[in-house]
Specification:
heterodimer, A: alpha+beta, 4-stranded mixed sheet, globular, disordered C terminus, B: alpha/beta
Chain lengths: ~350, ~90
Amino acid sequence: MSQGLVSDTIECEGPEDAVETFFQKGWTDGLPVIPPTEGKVLKFLGAAGLAPDEILGAIPERNRIFTAEKVAVNAVMAGCLPEYFPVVVAAVRGISRPEFGLHGVSASTAGAGILMVVNGPVSKELGINSGQNLMAPGNRANATIGRAVRLVLYNLGGREFDRSTLGHPGKYTFCISEQESRWEPLHVLRGLTKETSAVTLFAAEGPNQVQNHSALKPENILNTIADRMRSLGSFNMGGDVECAVIICPEHYETLNRAGWTKKDVRKHLFEKACRPLADLKRGGLNETPVLPEDEKTMVRAVSSPDQILLIMAGGVAGRFSACMSGWFSRHMSRAVTEPIGPSCAGGT
Amino acid sequence: MSITVLDPTNKPIETAFEMAPRPESLKGLTLGLIDNGKKNSDYLVKKIGDRLRELHGLEGGIHVRKPSPSHAIPEDAAKELAEKSNLVLAGIGD
């Protein structure tokens, strides 16, 4: 292999044969892939300014590393354009940070997906969807950037480790962008400048849609969301995890018009997303007897307002927001925010 | 028209290591237990340790609880196990 690439090569009769070969070898996510040729991979590496042998990340518990070359091969397969590759690179760097706990996230029976929230100028430059059909099919950047990360996990991290009981559709791809608004963007709340492009990675359950077409008072919109956040069967009640909350534009308009900031929203959700310990016992999450004091002992969905990743995104019509519980325990996995760009290093 | 494509997979990095010598008997040896921190794992490894001591005459024991099931055992805990135990039991799942 020339140009410094070290991957083994396979001769195929043509693109269709290559696609079928990759299916047979178990190298896809169950959907057809773009055949990764040397020329395409070199374009991707060039777009991110990376040498093929640069190590972008690893899963130390498995002795697995992610080189730029192999990540590029998988990004080509996912259908990315070369200009998307720096986002994939940042995502791979982010999920490889120790606090993300990638080994557990990608192996656990809980079957987390990796939610990617892109902020900053790159969102518009690449056309990453932050609007209608936010988490649904139809937009190349969202679909292929998220898919690339999953293919990296399967082909480089070792798909045999994934022991999800159910998994969820976000494990195919789970990439969104936040809309620009009067609220502070997620990456700014997490310590970066507004001008920086960044991706926030969060090991998440599937999205729980929250509809409230009735409330005109901010508190009531948020109380409905808080009710979903305190669901007995989520890790927000059964553990100590962060929670991602997506506020749709119509809900945002009501909140913003009333002067509510992200800080206010997170504080209210933190205070309301709780339930008495007695509820956990009656609901079967805790099988010890209900004691009188359990009615007054409150269990919170998150341990502080900062544990809520608040994002404004979605279609202009409809009062549907969403929340997503984190994976297992924030002591094992926490959201990370990674700057995007060949010269960027060190996230939050 | 034929095309040449690249293998998207890699393999684990192989690191050389030597297996510890196998004891011929467990009698009088010290058992190390790694509890990975999952629910009831402390209870389970303790029970297994008790049973092994009862059946094979093992003595004492070191119980190490990992701060996180999905991360490797901390280095100081690994050193303690290596220094104070003759064999180690690990591997608890759901």
